[in-house]
Design a protein that fits this description.
This protein is an alpha+beta fold. It is built from nine helices and 15 strands. Helix 6 packs antiparallel against helix 7. It binds manganese (II) ion. The site of manganese (II) ion (MN) has 6 residues, from strand 6 and strand 12.
Length: 275
C-alpha cells in the first residue's frame, strides 16, 4: 500500500508530457539468467516488461520510468543486483548525481531512513565517476579562457558522450564554445546551404579530431582553425584521452540547414589513436 501511495505521488509530480522518440528497450537478462530454469518468466521479463512496457516511451519516457522503478525498489528495501541494475540504468537514462541524491533523500521520508541509507551506499558507487568528471571539468575550465557552459542537452542525441555549450557572442558574428569530454564526438553531419554556408572551428583548449568522409582524420590543437565547406560530410570531437573545446561559427548562407547522420562508431574512433 505504502509503495503504491509513493508511486501515485511520484506519478503526479512527474512531467508526463515529456515526449521521446519511441525506442525499443532491449533486455536479455531474463533469458541469460533464467532461460532454461524458468523460460516463461524469462520471456515475460525480456519481451513484455522490457520489450513492451519499458519500451512505450511515447507514453512515459525512460528517465521517468527509471524514477518510478527506483522508488518502487527502494521503498521495498531491495538492495540486490536489481537495484544496482536500475541505478545504472537511471544514470544512463539521464538522472544526474544531484538528482539521484535529491530523489533518495525525498524517498527517505516516505519509505524509511535505513532504506535510503542502503540505497545511497549503492548510488554513490554508480555515480562515482561523475564526481571525477566534475573535477575534470573544473580542471579543464582552468586551462581555457572561454566558459565550458551548460550540458548540451539540445543536441545530445547527435553526440556520442557528453558535451557542453556556451554561447559566447550573439551579436554581429554569433558563435558558441563547444566542449567535449574525453572520447566525446558528434555524429557525422553536413552543413547544407544553397549558397555560402558551412562552418568554421577555432580550437581553444585540449586535443581533438576533425574528419571529412573518405579522408584521414586531422588532429587538432589549440589555435588550429578548421574551415568546413557547405555540403561536406564530417565530424568533430575530443581525443579519447583529452578534453577538447572549439569555438563554432556557422557561416551565413542561403537556405542553411544541418543534416545529422550516423554516429562515429567505436571501431572507427578507436582506429584514430593508432595514427
Ligand atoms: Mn560541423
Amino acid at each position: 500500500m505504502k509503495t503504491n501511495a509513493v508511486l501515485l505521488i511520484l506519478l503526479s509530480v512527474l512531467n508526463l508530457s515529456t515526449t521521446m522518440a519511441q525506442e525499443k528497450v532491449k533486455q536479455t537478462a531474463g533469458r541469460e539468467q533464467l532461460g532454461t530454469f524458468a523460460p516463461q518468466f524469462a520471456e515475460l521479463n525480456d519481451d513484455v516488461l522490457f520489450g513492451q512496457v519499458w519500451s512505450r516511451t511515447d507514453r512515459l519516457g525512460l528517465r521517468d520510468r527509471s524514477l518510478v522503478t527506483l522508488t518502487a525498489l527502494i521503498s521495498q528495501g531491495l538492495t540486490d543486483s536489481s537495484l544496482l541494475y536500475h541505478l545504472q540504468t537511471a544514470r544512463q537514462n539521464g538522472i544526474t548525481r544531484t538528482e539521484i541524491s535529491e530523489i533518495i533523500t525525498h524517498i527517505a521520508f516516505y519509505a524509511g531512513w535505513p532504506k535510503a541509507w542502503a540505497a545511497f551506499r549503492m548510488a554513490k558507487d554508480v555515480w562515482t565517476d561523475d564526481v571525477a568528471a566534475d573535477d575534470a571539468r573544473a580542471a579543464f575550465q582552468r586551462e581555457m579562457i572561454f566558459p565550458v557552459g551548460e550540458p548540451n542537452t539540445a543536441y545530445a542525441r547527435y553526440f556520442t558522450g557528453r558535451s557542453y555549450l556556451a554561447p559566447v557572442s550573439s551579436e554581429q558574428v554569433s558563435f558558441v564554445n563547444v566542449t567535449f569530454e574525453p572520447g566525446c564526438r558528434n555524429n557525422w553531419h553536413i552543413h547544407h546551404a544553397a549558397e555560402g554556408g558551412g562552418q568554421m572551428l577555432v580550437c581553444v583548449a585540449g586535443r581533438g579530431w576533425y574528419q571529412e568522409a573518405d579522408k584521414p582524420a586531422r588532429a587538432l590543437r589549440p589555435g588550429d582553425v578548421v574551415h568546413i565547406s557547405a555540403g561536406v560530410k564530417h565530424w568533430h570531437g575530443a581525443a579519447a584521452d583529452s578534453w577538447f573545446a572549439h569555438l563554432a561559427f556557422e557561416i551565413a548562407g542561403r537556405d542553411v540547414s544541418n543534416e545529422w547522420l550516423e554516429p562515429v562508431s567505436d571501431e572507427e574512433y578507436a582506429r584514430l589513436a593508432d595514427k
